[in-house]
Give the backbone structure.
Amino acid sequence: MKHTVPHTYDLYKKTFLNIVFGKLYFKYFIKKKPAKDRYIILSFDPDETSDMDELPRLLATLKKYGMKCSIAAVGAWIEKYPQHFKRAIREGHEIINHTYSHPDSPQLNPRHYFDLTKAERKKEIAKCHAVAKKVLGIELKGFRTPHFGYQHTEDTYAILEELGYSFCTSTRAIDSPEGKPFRKGTIVEFPLSYCPRHPWALFDSSHAFRGRFLKHSKKDFMKNFEELLDSGVFLNIYLDPQDFDKFDFEELLKIIKKKKIKTKLYRDVLKDYQ
Ligand SMILES: [Zn+2]
Ligand SMILES: [Zn+2]
């Protein structure tokens, strides 16, 4: 994921907060006692062809550890790489709608999601839905806004309701009540987890390794991951497969296993929040 047009003021404000207060804010205001039976939702956004090329490796690694994930699928990539998505479904993973052309994608569509009209947004979501049904034979029920966060729009929930969707995962934990899932009409929104060092950003490989202002070393990234897992917050993280050469993905799965945390899918936990 790459923010091609950041909202400058918002970006600088959040960067300032992250650098100055991030670590303390997480420790004193966000962290809580972890529940006994913890789980994590792992999601992947293969936005670009470099992400799609890594999908077979991702599926093979998850299989090795007996873990499941949710994949935010771009309709155009379902058409181009049907075999990858078919394999993911066969192996028990969940596919969610990530629009047809991923607005604000250098490879597919330069327009921003928030710049589209509501009708255009609906068309993007409905087209991805139709492609998944035709090519993969599945009815999608969940959605993620391309680049989420600042690109996400409120009217997306109304569109999802109109299209018969059940959930969305397009907000940052810091912008959500206590960072927990919440409802918008009939749609359940699953916010994405914080970076423990920079809670105004997400725990994601994109800011950690490709960020303009906030960066992490590989070692730091793993340490932050352990801290996040031990923090008792709702665990919903997303990673970009193209970053697999920047950190040890398998090591991350080993940490989850060591801490006896289960991996779950959005559809597995949806009922708890409806
Ligand atoms: Zn994306
Ligand atoms: Zn960070």
User: Anything to note?
Assistant: Residues 195, 197-198, 201, 207-208, 214, 216 surround zinc ion (ligand 2) (CB under 6 Å).
